[in-house]
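Priority: medium. Attachment 1 of 2:
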């Protein structure tokens, strides 16, 4: 009988902290290029499996991607919604990388932004450039909230 291997969230969080800590030590702010490129690579790997290439509306595609992130255990709950003409609010409940991201940001380093990078790469395919407005807000209830500004390319 086979056993599905699941990575312990604390281990995953610690490993990502270590990787992004050292990336920043070596290349400083260029670490953002690692974040965004990782999102592009992962998106290219999963697009076919999720049928994202067959979705016409970018927000429908974002919701499909959000559902997948929840299904694979990256996050407990997730929401992406347009809250203004060019503003998007992204809510994550207890993302698996919350502690490492919070710690890296506090240290002035570049955090992984795994799901954000995926979503930005997806928006790019629809002709949008997205940019984060400030740092993520880490709430006491476990939610992490980001705001993004969208620009048509």
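Attachment 2 of 2:
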């Amino acid at each position: 009988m086979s056993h599905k291997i699941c990575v312990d969230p604390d281990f995953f969080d610690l490993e990502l902290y270590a990787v992004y800590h050292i990336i920043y030590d070596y290349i400083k702010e260029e670490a953002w290029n690692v974040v965004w490129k990782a999102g592009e690579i992962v998106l290219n790997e999963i697009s076919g499996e999720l049928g994202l290439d067959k979705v016409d509306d970018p927000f429908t595609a974002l919701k499909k991607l959000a559902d997948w992130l929840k299904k694979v255990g990256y996050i407990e709950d997730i929401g992406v919604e347009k809250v203004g003409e060019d503003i998007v609010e992204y809510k994550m409940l207890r993302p698996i990388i919350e502690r490492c991201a919070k710690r890296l940001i506090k240290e002035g380093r570049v955090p992984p932004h795994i799901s954000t990078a995926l979503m930005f790469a997806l928006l790019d395919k629809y002709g949008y450039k997205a940019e984060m407005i400030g740092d993520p807000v880490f709430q006491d209830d476990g939610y992490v909230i980001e705001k993004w500004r969208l620009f048509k390319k």
